[in-house]
Amino acid sequence: MQSIIIDLFQKPGQYKKVAGFILVALLAAFPYIYFNNYYLHIAILVGIFVILSLSLNLITGFTGQLCLGHAAFYGVGAYVGALLMKNLQMNFFLALIVSFLVTGLFGLLLGIPTLRLRGDYLAIVTLGFGEIVRLVFINWEEVTNGPMGLRSIPAPSIMGFVLKERYMFYYLILIMVLLVLFLMNRLINSGFGMAMQTIKADEIAAESIGIYPVKYKLIAFILSSGLAGVAGCFYASYVSYISPTTFVYNTSVTILAMVVLGGLGSLAGSVIGAAVLTLIPEVLRFISDYRMLLFGALMVLMMIFKPEGFWGVSKRVKNIYKLKAGRRHHERDIKSQ
Amino acid sequence: MSEILRANNVSMVFGGLTAVDNISLAMEDNEILSLIGPNGAGKTTFFNMLTGVYKPTTGNIIFMDEDITHLKAHQRVAKGISRTFQNIRLFKDMTALENLMVAHPRCNQENLARVLLGGRKLKMQRQAIVEECEEILEIVGLKEKEGELATNLPYGKQRLLEIGRALATDPKLVLLDEPGAGMNSVEKEELTALIRHITEKMGKNVLLIEHDMKFVMGISDRILVLDHGELIANGVPREIQTNPQVIEAYLGKGMIDDEEE
Amino acid sequence: MFTQQLINGITVGGIYALIALGYTMVYGILKIVNFAHGDVFMVGSFLGLLFVQNAGMPIYIAYPAAMLVTAAVGVVIERVCYRPIRIKGTDALSILIAALGVSIFLENFAQLVWGTGTHAYVQEIKEKNYEFGNINLSNIQIGVIVLCVLLMAALYFVVNKTKIGVAMRATSQSITSAQLMGINTEMVIAATFGVGSALACVAGVLVGTYYDAVYPLVGYSYGLKAFAAAILGGIGSIPGAMLGGFLIGIVETLGSAYISAGYKDAFAFGILILVLIIRPSGLLGKKHVDKV
Questions:
Q1: Which of A159, A173, C53, C259 has the most CB within a 10 Å radius?
Q2: What pLDDT sits at residue A321?
Q3: C101 and A300 in contact by Cβ < 8 A?
């Protein structure tokens, strides 16, 4: 037994799997360790924000396109999901897929005109887009019920079994987060993902090796907004009530802060960033008046002293593409050492 | 096919400034062609037109009997033209090997759906890509540095890595923009050997811009001289060395070994 | 009716333009967007109120004092929050996030000090209305427009005709070269933040007087629209910021009068997006060229 453990820890990459497995097991056991609705609620919020920050990381962290309107995609997903489930009695999982597609379409619509823009110009346009979407939520009363928002959005159900307990939502979001992480990990460590990252680094150099930036930017926008839509759809079903006040500029900024403080271009960073920034305001509740003040100061301090974030790209595994490509290489290398 | 590249009456005008003025040239298959000229002569602008960074104001460019004037930069790479940059443009946060892999057409054109689904076939394909890229690293002499971040490599090695990256796109024609800049004489000798290897053993064509006359004279089969955006001479190294117009172009302005604007 | 709305639009537009100048000047020199600028505007507005109401100063002392203090706030923000990041040479995104942090800090600071509600503003100047046919023009409106135009003219003069203006323009071309030419660039940067913040303070006082209201989150919508104005005009360009400010003010006033009041803010951003699609560098901005 001992030798197996030692063996596991000696192979590079293996111990990560073990650590990951233990972490997932702990997360799965969480509702049994702390069965407390408040903790579960916070954990579910963390899950939602993990998906949001992972998705934003796809545009901003990997492809290098600054986006300050992510809350709009989150909102579109929430409204689309809510309306489908409420008015058409559509199944949650189907609504999730439709939300992904509709929000992805919005991402494409925003992506096309912004292809020529960069940096701050892109920031203000995405910000303006977010504002316009918010105004539509408020003013298109026939559909969105205006500032009052939409109430009694049904909970998800799987073949007649309704997920109405909080811990069920917890497991649902846990599975969703793991699935997103799994797919994102595959994506960013692929040739496709590397091509995306060249656009962030240097667009002209990327073109000089045959990469067409337009394609990758648009796909990043579509996937990113689609994922934010999925998070929104889940959120709508979870809280059963949505209103325009959730999907505001501040939410966009918070998501961006999660990505940046966690570490641009790092999946682990997004997870950590989302967890930390969701927890900080909760932990600081006892000094509730000052918490946002501290939060602002923390953002500044972090940028001064640790601009690459909690888990920056320097921690990434080098040549991971090669490691993933072939066991054969890998084993050969180990033997030769 | 004996002619690989042809430029017909190519000009580039920025605002009111004519950077490249009505240049025509033809490049034979399997020759090392050099482009020289004083600073601001339009050499890099000409490169940028060949690679699609700029669209020529007039004229057209034929690559392997095909008009590529209207193709975008990335499309020209697919046709078989790749380049290096005067001010090195590597992906700094990627390793040496990653810089090559991402340039490999089968790597950066990976299909999104296949990537997400994964599978054995994809792994096999990636193994082949990795092996090809490691071979190229070996050729440019950076095999031991494959795990090193590009930004941590010394300047000369970065130039070599950029050549390696250009080779990884599987080009037929490689454009090198001042490959020897910043290199010492030993490194330049290695570079000469590398360029010979690329043309002779790998069967690629090389068109290069260079300031170091000794290096250019030693390696080129033919030299073109640009001055004020115009082609003022075209010939084998010996002819160029004695061409009065070329001497005037250089001595008249003073020969500065510096970056070109 | 149309002329009336146009005048209202010009009034708001002038205020946007004053704030936009701060964005554009800072961008021109440091190539960063000071996202906290809208909140500096809010702080300026509150300081004006504070000096008159709590300190009991007459407005001709209170308002210049508020401008000075706001200028100091701007300079301190740059020194404490942006300069350390700038000097390290990390990318623009770090400064952007820091600026967002400053913005959150200022908004919450204001809420702690002044509460979350709306305050009535100083009404030392009695509002008088003048009728011209069916157009209604108040003395405050006239004051706002005249003051905006005067300040912009003054700024234009400073930038183009004075020594510090030359230093500013040199620094905006290249900080390193300006330093080599013996320009104290840190001074220029501080001056830029100071002047921009003082102008924002004027805008804050004007908004307070014009609408008789100030609240901690007022910087958000004004800041965004002024930023939009700066980008619309071409960020980095001072005439551009003025043009953008007036344009956004007019478009949103006319849009909300004739199309839909609920979508008032959407018009400002709508026109911004439209213009950028056609001219990615803004109306008067310089085209961005990548050097290869």
A1: A173
A2: 85
A3: yes
For residue A322, the chain B residues in CB contact (below 8 A) are 97, 101, 130
Q: Which residue of B has its CA nearest to C290?
A: B53
Query: According to the model, what pLDDT value does residue A147 have?
Result: 93
Across the interface, do A303 and C112 touch by the CB < 8 Å criterion? no
Residues A114 and A198 reside in one and the same domain: yes
CB contacts < 8 A (A, C): 127
pLDDT tens-digit readout, B29-74:
888 999 999 888 899 999 999 999 999 999 999 999 999 999 999 9
């003082």: which residue's tokens? C198
Low-confidence ranges of chain C (pLDDT < 50): none
The distance of A230 to chain C (nearest Cα, Å) reads: 26
CA closest to A114 among chain C residues:
C277
Pair A296, A230 in one domain: yes
Residues A213 and A69 in one domain: yes
> In percent, how much of chain B has pLDDT > 70?
95
Query: What digits encode the pLDDT tens for the residues B169-192?
Result: 999 999 999 999 889 989 999 999
- How many structural domains is chain A composed of? 2
Is the Cβ of B118 closer than 8 Å to some Cβ of chain A? yes
The answer to whether residues A27 and A167 belong to one domain is no
Q: What pLDDT is stored for residue B91 in this prediction?
A: 95
Q: What is the pLDDT of residue C92?
A: 75
- C-chain CB neighbours of A302 within 8 Å are 97, 101
State the pTM of this model: 0.90
Do A326 and A267 lie in one domain? The reply is yes
Closest-CA distance, B127 to chain A, in angstroms, reads 5
HSE toward the beta carbon, residue C240, CA cutoff 13 A: 24
Q: Are the C-beta atoms of residues B156 and B182 closer than 8 Å to each other?
A: yes
Same domain, A148 and A293: yes
What integer pLDDT is reported at residue B65 of this predicted model?
92
Q: Does any domain span residue A337?
A: no
How much of chain A, in percent, has pLDDT values that exceed 70? 92
Q: What is the ipTM of this complex?
A: 0.90
Beta-carbon contacts of B44 under 8 Å, excluding residues fewer than 6 positions away, are: B86, B177, B209, B260, C292
Give the nearest chain A residue to B163 (CA atoms): A209
Mean pLDDT of chain A: 88
Q: Which of A194, A198, A199, A208 to mutate to test the interface with B (most CBs of B within 10 A)?
A: A208
Closest Cβ–Cβ partner in B52, B78, B102 for A191: B102
- Rounded to the nearest angstrom, the minimum Cα separation between A217 and chain C is 16
pLDDT at C289: 62
For residue A19, what pLDDT band results from cuts at 50, 70 and 90? confident
Same domain, residue pair A200 and A231: yes
Give me the domains of chain B, ranges plus CATH numbers. 1-80+172-181+204-261 (3.40.50.300), 89-170 (3.40.50.300)
Confidence of residue A9 (pLDDT cuts 50, 70, 90): low
The angle, 0 to 180 degrees and rounded to 10, between the axes of the packed helices C218-233 and C37-53 is: 130
Q: Give the domain range for residue A107.
A: 37-330
Helix A249-262 with A119-139: angle, nearest 10 deg: 140
CB nearest to A195's CB, from B102, B166, B169: B102
Q: pLDDT band at residue A328, thresholds of 50, 70 and 90?
A: low
Per CB-CB distance under 8 Å, the chain B contacts of C286 are none
Q: Where are the beta strands (DSSP E) in chain A?
A: 157-158, 161-162
The residue-averaged pLDDT of A109-134 equals: 88
Chains with 3 or more CB pairs under 8 A to chain A:
B, C
